[in-house]
Amino acid sequence: xxxxxxxxxxxxxxxxxxxxxxxxxxxxxxxxxxxxxxxxxxxxxxxxxxxxxxxxxxxxxxxxxxxxxxxxxxxxxxxxxxxxxxxxxxxxxxxxxxxxxxxxxxxxxxxxxxxxxxxxxxxxxxxxxxxxxxxxxxxxxxxxxxxxxxxxxxxxxxxxxxxxxxxxxxxxxxxxxxxxxxxxxxxxxxxxxxxxxxxxxxxxxxxxxxxxxxxxxxxxxxxxxxxxxxxxxxxxxxxxxxxxxxxxxxxxxxxxxxxxxxxxxxxxxxxxxxxxxxxxxxxxxxxxxxxxxxxxxxxxxxxxxxxxxxxxxxxxxxxxxxxxxxxxxxxxxxxxxxxxxxxxxxxxxxxxxxxxxxxxxxxxxxxxxxxxxxxxxxxxxxxxxxxxxxxxxxxxxxxxxxxxxxxxxxxxxxxxxxxxxxxxxxxxxxxxxxxxxxxxxxxxxxxxxxxxxxxxxxxxxxxxxxxxxx
Length: 470
Hints:
With about 475 residues, the protein is an alpha+beta fold. It contains 12 helices and 26 strands. Among the domains are: about 170 residues, DNA Polymerase III, Chain A, domain 2, CATH 3.10.150; about 90 residues, no CATH class. β24 and β25 form a beta hairpin. The chain is globular. It starts with a strand and ends with a helix.
């Protein structure tokens, strides 16, 4: 796993200070991006929380996921949550160390009081003393929230700087992109009341051995007002892979008003990802689970098709300048502004997702703007199938037999790639193992790229011939 060292430098440690009506939660920020450019300690919000206890417990849940590993538990995980200010709301995000769980707390406009919200993205310090203090917060007294340095302290930051050196594995970057690409295709599959949500979640197994039969995935099906566990994907079933990974939701059950479940319609018995959203007063907490507990999002391949297009890079550059830290990004609006077809805008957003520049909100069914400290080209370089497919294309290893088949020479073997109804299959071992459930293999990807190149060459030749005839 490729890693890079990333230093988070804070002006001080985040802390909960005061008591009674004078309590203040100060979240310190590290370097981040704002509309004005890069800032060492951006300030995004200073005001009151409408529901202090719900917000505190939601933030703790996001921090729980950032510090957790459900696979390869011997490796330590610790990356401070990311906060994005979208002008009317705050979003706190994290990824588990094993890359299998994505968490986000959206504090909506009705959850914030008394101040304007800024624009930008940065990390926030969540240390152990702060965690202990947050766990003791009640709703009895108002709580002031400050995200960023105190205005009076901006010019006097002469105290010791708190630094945290954390690893940024490339698979985490790919995980952010893959989870967003996958959830963009989800639908709302079930909704439970607060009472039923509490009953259902508290009854779930909390150890890996208890989830599913014979190591297989657990499924749930709507049954009246609740969800009933099952060991097979019956009609209407929703996959719940690794139910123990929903433990972080336990923190907010007392404040929950509803539970919403999102996912795809199952195609066979193969496990799928799913998203579990707890609705809170003025906010939402969502956990998105990878298809299996020992399988991170980074290898799902949902963004490969978008990354492999010839126009995606240029389109992404154009679309990126139109983003304005909006809480809701509509592809149709971007298409009108950029002059690009909606399909190319969606592909551009997918590519921007690989650089951490956009996220996807299931509740709003729309993208949102944020800026993580990643480079889109880095994600492409470290995606093995995409790198291998480009190499096959450069070597001339793809021979197009017709409109629906191709031969791809790879090593000492040749593989047959077929296309039917827009879907591609291959005779390689990858296809035999996953049947397209984890994106295209390198041979199918190279074939798709070769067909685009051939179609582009034909169009160019036709245009040139027409021009000469005139």
